[in-house]
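For concreteness, we quote verbatim a single protein encoded this way:
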Amino acid sequence: MADDTPRGFDPGAAGPGSSAAMRTDVACSLTISSPVPATALLQVAVAAPTTEELTILSAGQPRHAVETQVDGARVHKLEVAAGETTISYSASVESGGAPREVTAADWAEYLRPSRYCPSDQVEGFAAREFDQDVERGALVGQVAQWVTDRLVYVAGASRPVDTAIDTLLAGSGVCRDYTHLTVMLLRALEVPARLVAVYAPGLSPMDFHAVVEADVDGVWKTVDPTRLAPTSSLVRICHGRDAADTAFLSLFGGRATLGRMTVTATVDGDLPAPDAAPYPLP
Protein backbone atom coordinates (compact mmCIF):
# COMPACT_ATOMS: atom_id res chain seq x y z
CA MET A 1 0.00 0.00 0.00
CA ALA A 2 1.32 3.44 -0.78
CA ASP A 3 2.20 5.83 2.03
CA ASP A 4 -0.83 8.11 1.77
CA THR A 5 -0.43 10.05 5.01
CA PRO A 6 -2.99 12.86 4.71
CA ARG A 7 -1.96 16.44 5.45
CA GLY A 8 -2.78 17.49 8.94
CA PHE A 9 -2.65 13.91 10.21
CA ASP A 10 0.33 14.76 12.38
CA PRO A 11 1.44 18.18 13.60
CA GLY A 12 5.09 17.20 13.17
CA ALA A 13 7.28 18.00 10.19
CA ALA A 14 6.98 15.93 7.05
CA GLY A 15 8.96 12.72 7.29
CA PRO A 16 10.28 10.21 4.75
CA GLY A 17 7.54 8.99 2.46
CA SER A 18 5.00 11.56 3.61
CA SER A 19 2.98 13.53 1.10
CA ALA A 20 4.60 16.71 -0.22
CA ALA A 21 3.56 19.94 1.44
CA MET A 22 0.90 22.02 -0.29
CA ARG A 23 -1.63 24.50 1.02
CA THR A 24 -5.14 23.20 1.47
CA ASP A 25 -8.01 25.52 2.35
CA VAL A 26 -11.06 24.09 4.11
CA ALA A 27 -14.27 25.62 5.40
CA CYS A 28 -17.71 24.72 6.67
CA SER A 29 -20.86 26.52 7.68
CA LEU A 30 -23.62 25.04 9.86
CA THR A 31 -27.00 26.46 10.84
CA ILE A 32 -28.73 25.19 14.00
CA SER A 33 -32.32 25.98 14.91
CA SER A 34 -33.73 25.50 18.40
CA PRO A 35 -36.90 26.73 20.15
CA VAL A 36 -35.06 26.63 23.50
CA PRO A 37 -31.41 26.86 24.62
CA ALA A 38 -29.26 23.78 23.97
CA THR A 39 -25.65 22.56 24.12
CA ALA A 40 -23.60 21.60 21.08
CA LEU A 41 -20.35 19.68 20.67
CA LEU A 42 -18.54 20.54 17.45
CA GLN A 43 -15.76 18.57 15.72
CA VAL A 44 -14.88 20.50 12.56
CA ALA A 45 -11.47 21.99 13.46
CA VAL A 46 -8.46 20.50 11.66
CA ALA A 47 -5.59 18.91 13.53
CA ALA A 48 -2.73 21.22 12.54
CA PRO A 49 -3.85 24.49 10.93
CA THR A 50 -1.48 27.25 9.91
CA THR A 51 -4.36 29.74 10.09
CA GLU A 52 -7.99 29.33 11.12
CA GLU A 53 -11.11 31.19 12.20
CA LEU A 54 -14.21 30.03 14.09
CA THR A 55 -17.20 32.37 14.23
CA ILE A 56 -20.44 31.67 16.10
CA LEU A 57 -23.57 33.82 15.99
CA SER A 58 -26.48 32.67 18.16
CA ALA A 59 -29.76 34.62 18.10
CA GLY A 60 -27.79 37.43 16.44
CA GLN A 61 -25.14 37.61 19.18
CA PRO A 62 -21.50 36.42 19.07
CA ARG A 63 -20.84 33.30 21.14
CA HIS A 64 -17.65 31.79 22.51
CA ALA A 65 -16.85 28.07 22.28
CA VAL A 66 -14.70 26.25 24.82
CA GLU A 67 -12.09 24.03 23.16
CA THR A 68 -10.82 20.78 24.63
CA GLN A 69 -8.70 17.87 23.38
CA VAL A 70 -10.21 14.38 23.18
CA ASP A 71 -7.73 11.75 21.96
CA GLY A 72 -6.02 14.31 19.77
CA ALA A 73 -9.27 15.72 18.38
CA ARG A 74 -10.21 19.35 18.94
CA VAL A 75 -13.76 19.48 20.33
CA HIS A 76 -15.60 22.78 20.79
CA LYS A 77 -18.44 23.03 23.32
CA LEU A 78 -20.91 25.88 22.94
CA GLU A 79 -24.22 27.00 24.35
CA VAL A 80 -26.88 27.60 21.71
CA ALA A 81 -29.55 30.24 22.34
CA ALA A 82 -33.17 29.84 21.34
CA GLY A 83 -33.57 30.72 17.67
CA GLU A 84 -31.00 30.32 14.89
CA THR A 85 -27.28 29.74 15.38
CA THR A 86 -24.73 29.96 12.57
CA ILE A 87 -21.29 28.38 12.91
CA SER A 88 -18.58 29.25 10.37
CA TYR A 89 -15.12 27.67 10.34
CA SER A 90 -12.22 28.09 7.93
CA ALA A 91 -8.59 26.98 8.01
CA SER A 92 -5.47 26.53 5.93
CA VAL A 93 -3.09 23.57 6.26
CA GLU A 94 0.39 23.42 4.77
CA SER A 95 2.26 20.63 6.58
CA GLY A 96 2.75 17.38 4.70
CA GLY A 97 2.54 15.53 8.01
CA ALA A 98 4.57 12.57 9.24
CA PRO A 99 3.37 8.94 9.46
CA ARG A 100 1.65 8.23 12.78
CA GLU A 101 2.91 5.26 14.78
CA VAL A 102 0.49 2.64 16.12
CA THR A 103 0.82 2.35 19.90
CA ALA A 104 0.01 -0.47 22.32
CA ALA A 105 -2.97 1.57 23.48
CA ASP A 106 -4.17 1.77 19.86
CA TRP A 107 -4.09 -2.04 19.67
CA ALA A 108 -6.20 -2.28 22.82
CA GLU A 109 -8.78 0.19 21.50
CA TYR A 110 -8.96 -0.47 17.77
CA LEU A 111 -9.04 -4.25 17.76
CA ARG A 112 -12.21 -4.39 19.86
CA PRO A 113 -15.78 -4.36 18.53
CA SER A 114 -17.59 -1.03 18.68
CA ARG A 115 -21.13 0.27 18.27
CA TYR A 116 -21.15 0.41 14.46
CA CYS A 117 -18.40 -2.15 13.85
CA PRO A 118 -19.39 -5.42 15.62
CA SER A 119 -16.32 -7.30 14.42
CA ASP A 120 -16.80 -10.19 16.85
CA GLN A 121 -19.93 -11.20 14.92
CA VAL A 122 -18.15 -11.69 11.58
CA GLU A 123 -14.86 -13.36 12.52
CA GLY A 124 -15.77 -16.63 10.78
CA PHE A 125 -17.01 -14.84 7.68
CA ALA A 126 -13.87 -12.71 7.43
CA ALA A 127 -11.56 -15.70 7.96
CA ARG A 128 -13.24 -17.58 5.09
CA GLU A 129 -13.34 -14.57 2.77
CA PHE A 130 -9.74 -13.32 3.13
CA ASP A 131 -6.27 -14.86 3.23
CA GLN A 132 -4.67 -13.91 6.54
CA ASP A 133 -1.33 -15.46 5.52
CA VAL A 134 -0.47 -12.57 3.18
CA GLU A 135 1.56 -9.66 4.52
CA ARG A 136 -0.34 -6.93 6.35
CA GLY A 137 -0.33 -4.27 3.62
CA ALA A 138 -1.67 -6.70 1.07
CA LEU A 139 -4.41 -7.84 3.46
CA VAL A 140 -5.54 -4.27 4.13
CA GLY A 141 -5.59 -3.61 0.40
CA GLN A 142 -7.61 -6.77 -0.27
CA VAL A 143 -10.24 -5.87 2.32
CA ALA A 144 -10.56 -2.29 1.06
CA GLN A 145 -10.86 -3.48 -2.55
CA TRP A 146 -13.44 -6.10 -1.53
CA VAL A 147 -15.59 -3.38 0.07
CA THR A 148 -15.14 -1.13 -2.99
CA ASP A 149 -16.35 -3.94 -5.25
CA ARG A 150 -19.12 -5.15 -2.93
CA LEU A 151 -20.93 -1.87 -2.21
CA VAL A 152 -22.77 0.66 -4.34
CA TYR A 153 -22.57 4.29 -3.25
CA VAL A 154 -26.13 5.56 -2.80
CA ALA A 155 -26.80 8.84 -0.99
CA GLY A 156 -29.48 8.40 1.66
CA ALA A 157 -29.42 4.60 1.40
CA SER A 158 -28.57 4.03 5.06
CA ARG A 159 -29.92 5.12 8.42
CA PRO A 160 -27.88 6.77 11.20
CA VAL A 161 -28.34 3.64 13.33
CA ASP A 162 -27.15 1.14 10.69
CA THR A 163 -24.14 -0.97 11.63
CA ALA A 164 -21.54 -2.46 9.29
CA ILE A 165 -23.53 -5.69 9.26
CA ASP A 166 -26.57 -3.78 7.96
CA THR A 167 -24.34 -2.32 5.26
CA LEU A 168 -22.98 -5.75 4.36
CA LEU A 169 -26.50 -7.11 3.91
CA ALA A 170 -27.82 -4.05 2.07
CA GLY A 171 -24.90 -3.81 -0.34
CA SER A 172 -25.05 -0.02 -0.46
CA GLY A 173 -24.33 3.05 1.61
CA VAL A 174 -22.34 6.27 1.95
CA CYS A 175 -18.77 6.95 3.07
CA ARG A 176 -19.35 6.15 6.75
CA ASP A 177 -20.91 2.81 5.74
CA TYR A 178 -17.97 1.92 3.48
CA THR A 179 -15.62 2.83 6.30
CA HIS A 180 -17.54 0.93 8.98
CA LEU A 181 -17.60 -2.24 6.87
CA THR A 182 -13.87 -2.01 6.12
CA VAL A 183 -13.02 -1.35 9.77
CA MET A 184 -15.22 -4.22 10.97
CA LEU A 185 -13.66 -6.74 8.60
CA LEU A 186 -10.11 -5.64 9.40
CA ARG A 187 -10.70 -5.95 13.16
CA ALA A 188 -12.23 -9.38 12.60
CA LEU A 189 -8.95 -10.29 10.89
CA GLU A 190 -6.97 -8.96 13.90
CA VAL A 191 -5.85 -5.76 12.16
CA PRO A 192 -6.29 -2.59 14.26
CA ALA A 193 -8.45 -0.16 12.29
CA ARG A 194 -10.34 3.07 12.90
CA LEU A 195 -12.53 5.68 11.24
CA VAL A 196 -11.04 9.08 10.40
CA ALA A 197 -13.20 12.14 9.67
CA VAL A 198 -11.61 14.41 7.06
CA TYR A 199 -12.00 17.27 4.65
CA ALA A 200 -11.52 15.80 1.17
CA PRO A 201 -10.49 18.02 -1.76
CA GLY A 202 -11.92 16.52 -4.96
CA LEU A 203 -14.91 14.94 -3.23
CA SER A 204 -18.15 15.31 -5.21
CA PRO A 205 -20.65 16.18 -3.94
CA MET A 206 -18.59 18.03 -1.31
CA ASP A 207 -19.27 17.06 2.31
CA PHE A 208 -17.46 15.87 5.40
CA HIS A 209 -15.83 12.55 4.50
CA ALA A 210 -14.89 9.33 6.34
CA VAL A 211 -11.93 7.08 5.54
CA VAL A 212 -10.05 4.18 7.16
CA GLU A 213 -6.73 4.05 8.97
CA ALA A 214 -5.25 0.56 9.45
CA ASP A 215 -2.11 -0.70 11.14
CA VAL A 216 0.49 -1.71 8.55
CA ASP A 217 3.86 -2.59 10.10
CA GLY A 218 3.33 -0.32 13.08
CA VAL A 219 2.22 2.76 11.12
CA TRP A 220 -1.31 4.02 10.43
CA LYS A 221 -2.01 3.78 6.69
CA THR A 222 -4.98 5.43 4.98
CA VAL A 223 -7.41 3.83 2.53
CA ASP A 224 -10.68 5.15 1.15
CA PRO A 225 -12.89 2.29 -0.06
CA THR A 226 -15.29 4.78 -1.70
CA ARG A 227 -12.48 6.00 -4.01
CA LEU A 228 -14.26 9.35 -4.17
CA ALA A 229 -11.19 11.49 -3.38
CA PRO A 230 -7.39 11.05 -3.47
CA THR A 231 -6.14 10.03 -0.03
CA SER A 232 -2.96 12.09 -0.43
CA SER A 233 -4.97 15.33 -0.27
CA LEU A 234 -7.10 14.58 2.82
CA VAL A 235 -7.03 16.88 5.85
CA ARG A 236 -7.70 15.22 9.20
CA ILE A 237 -10.34 16.37 11.65
CA CYS A 238 -10.47 13.51 14.14
CA HIS A 239 -10.39 9.72 14.50
CA GLY A 240 -12.32 7.21 16.57
CA ARG A 241 -13.66 3.68 16.89
CA ASP A 242 -16.51 4.53 14.51
CA ALA A 243 -18.91 7.36 13.65
CA ALA A 244 -20.11 7.56 17.27
CA ASP A 245 -16.74 9.11 18.18
CA THR A 246 -16.34 11.40 15.18
CA ALA A 247 -19.65 13.21 14.63
CA PHE A 248 -19.10 16.77 13.36
CA LEU A 249 -22.05 17.97 15.49
CA SER A 250 -23.77 16.56 18.57
CA LEU A 251 -26.76 18.39 20.11
CA PHE A 252 -27.96 17.99 23.71
CA GLY A 253 -30.97 19.43 25.49
CA GLY A 254 -33.97 21.12 23.98
CA ARG A 255 -35.01 20.25 20.44
CA ALA A 256 -32.19 21.72 18.36
CA THR A 257 -31.91 20.56 14.75
CA LEU A 258 -29.31 20.98 12.02
CA GLY A 259 -30.46 23.10 9.10
CA ARG A 260 -28.25 24.31 6.26
CA MET A 261 -24.69 23.01 5.88
CA THR A 262 -21.91 23.69 3.40
CA VAL A 263 -18.40 22.19 3.24
CA THR A 264 -15.50 23.18 0.97
CA ALA A 265 -11.96 21.85 0.54
CA THR A 266 -9.51 22.99 -2.14
CA VAL A 267 -5.77 22.71 -2.85
CA ASP A 268 -3.50 25.41 -4.28
CA GLY A 269 -2.66 23.91 -7.63
CA ASP A 270 -3.49 20.62 -9.28
CA LEU A 271 -5.38 18.04 -7.26
CA PRO A 272 -3.28 14.88 -6.73
CA ALA A 273 -4.13 11.90 -8.92
CA PRO A 274 -6.73 9.46 -7.55
CA ASP A 275 -5.50 6.30 -5.86
CA ALA A 276 -4.59 3.48 -8.20
CA ALA A 277 -6.91 0.47 -8.60
CA PRO A 278 -6.49 -2.11 -7.23
CA TYR A 279 -4.95 -0.76 -4.05
CA PRO A 280 -1.15 -0.64 -4.29
CA LEU A 281 0.97 -2.80 -2.02
CA PRO A 282 3.76 -1.38 0.18
Q: What stands out?
A: The mean pLDDT is 88. The first strand starts at residue 24 and ends at 34.
